[in-house]
Amino acid sequence: MNDVPQISIIGITGLPEIKEGDDLGSMIVRFAQGQDTPLASGDILVVTQKIVSKAEGRLVDLRKIEPSAFAAEFASHSGRDARLVELVLRESRSVVRMDAERGIMITETKHGFVCANSGIDSSNVFGEDYVCLLPEDPDASAEGIRIRIRELIDSPDVPVIISDTFGRAWREGHGNFAIGVSGMDPLKDYRGEIDASGKLLRVTNIAVADELAGAAELVMAKVINVPVAIVRGYAYSAVDNASIAPMLRERSRDLFR
Amino acid sequence: MNDVPQISIIGITGLPEIKEGDDLGSMIVRFAQGQDTPLASGDILVVTQKIVSKAEGRLVDLRKIEPSAFAAEFASHSGRDARLVELVLRESRSVVRMDAERGIMITETKHGFVCANSGIDSSNVFGEDYVCLLPEDPDASAEGIRIRIRELIDSPDVPVIISDTFGRAWREGHGNFAIGVSGMDPLKDYRGEIDASGKLLRVTNIAVADELAGAAELVMAKVINVPVAIVRGYAYSAVDNASIAPMLRERSRDLFR
Fold first, then answer.
1. In chain B, what residues touch A171 (CB-CB under 8 Å)?
2. Which chain B residues are Cβ-neighbours of A127 within 8 angstroms?
3. Where exactly are the structural domains of chain B?
4. How many other C-beta atoms lie within 10 A of the C-beta of residue A162?
5. How many contacts (CB atoms, under 8 Å) link A and B?
6. Pairwise CB contact (< 8 Å): B124 & A37
7. Which residue of B218, B243, B248, B252 to mutate against A (max A Cβ within 10 Å)?
8. Nearest-CA distance from A152 to chain B in Å?
């Protein structure tokens, strides 16, 4: 078994409903210990956006949102909530696709993520009129959790990925994607390495942070309460000042915006 | 530890270079046993496209390909191999984007996958003039491996996913995607279920086969020889006549073609 590559993904269960100001780093450490899977050196944490946003006070009461004429117009044609349409527009820096007939809004968020509804949703949010925005700076959110954990436990410096569930072009089904990262390189670049046949690899740059986020989703079923996962055994590249930015394709290089 | 959700991903190492006609199912069973991680009930196998294509004789000698005038024209502007351009076009049913300046061809393959170069590449293929096509029918490839394994070992009926590495719209870095499936539902539909806050989930349909493929990639580093992974502990939905087709968005529903 010595040379067998193996990774474990462990869900952290039992966290209570998260409120603004909650200390997520401390809660993660405590609940990981409580279920006998304490954080260890080499672990990576994947934390769902929803609890990060809740801890950062990113819930919005739609009753306080005044829709613009444009938002009201799109809402009336699409059957969507005009206040939510307004909020989606406010949280975007550009609209990639709008389809009133099907009620679809694909936007580029202020952070640069291309996703439906600027990442705003109401699932797992209590209260009919409340929706949840993405964290303002998910890299900083990841960094904050990582630093807090480093204060609390001795040995490991655990990289943190903030994940969210987005749709994809061309394929049905949603996937989990990384929206913030701290402590590890989100990409693994094989370009310049030699493959098993002796050829130079020219293209392959793997989006490991997205693959880690997707792997974590497998233990984070939507309807049960598993908002955090430990990925154990993946040999990540530790870096300072990590950011999700290198994973966001520049508009000038993008054929689909 | 009883209620802690946990998944393991185990790479299968040591397989020799695959040749046309090799019995992949039997090799996978043998090498999994040989490294003391025999297949067990509940396991899912993720098998990279490259070894499936090799076993199915999908290597092509470019010296036998006669480029069309169109392929030659694109090749001369993009600096690409005209024979490869020709093959990419032959393996596609439509071109989604071509950019001669950057040498990019995004096509829709005969199967319906939207990816660069119709999924053709030369990495890990021996011989300067040889490239590798996708399997002709990756669902059938997955089914064949699954049935062969069921003949060889007793208890488990192990679902099989064939994976390949594709680029994505909007994001840098490649990811592993499912291109064929047998024995499990590639999607997990939460629509109609109730979330932790009591709200009806309206949208979420998770592309689990892609997440399993991506998770497997984490143990399948490109430059070493790990072409197969076991995913252990994921509660998949067993189905007969599984297919990747429901995961391929219909053109009429797609905003990015």
1. 114, 177, 207, 210, 247-249
2. 197
3. 8-58+134-249, 60-130
4. 29
5. 258
6. no
7. B218
8. 23
Cβ atoms of A161 and A46 closer than 8 Å = yes
- Would you mind telling me the total number of residues written for chain A in this entry? 257
CA-CA distance, A193 to A172, in Å (whole number)? 33
Contact B139, B181 (CB under 8 A): yes
Class in CATH terms, A8-58+134-249: alpha beta
CA distances from B153 to A72, B33, B83, B182 (A): 61, 11, 44, 17
SS3 percent helix, strand, coil of chain A, rounded to 5, is: 30, 25, 45
Taking chain B (257 residues) in runs of 10, the rounded mean pLDDT of each run is 85 95 98 96 96 97 97 95 97 95 95 97 89 98 97 88 96 96 94 80 86 96 80 96 96 88
Task: State the best of B104, B128, B172, B188 to mutate against chain A, taking most chain A CBs within 10 Å.
Answer: B172
ipTM of the complex: 0.95
* Alpha carbon distance A132, A51 (integer Å): 10
Helix (H, G, I), strand (E, B) or coil at B121: strand
DSSP-derived secondary structure letter, A62:
G
The rounded distance, in Å, linking the Cα atoms of B135 and B76 is: 29
Homologous superfamily (CATH) of B60-130 is CofE-like domain (3.90.1660.10)
Q: Looking at beta carbons, which residues of chain A come within 8 Å of B123?
A: 195, 197, 199, 201, 203-204
pTM: 0.96
Residues on chain B touching A36 (C-beta within 8 angstroms): 1, 4
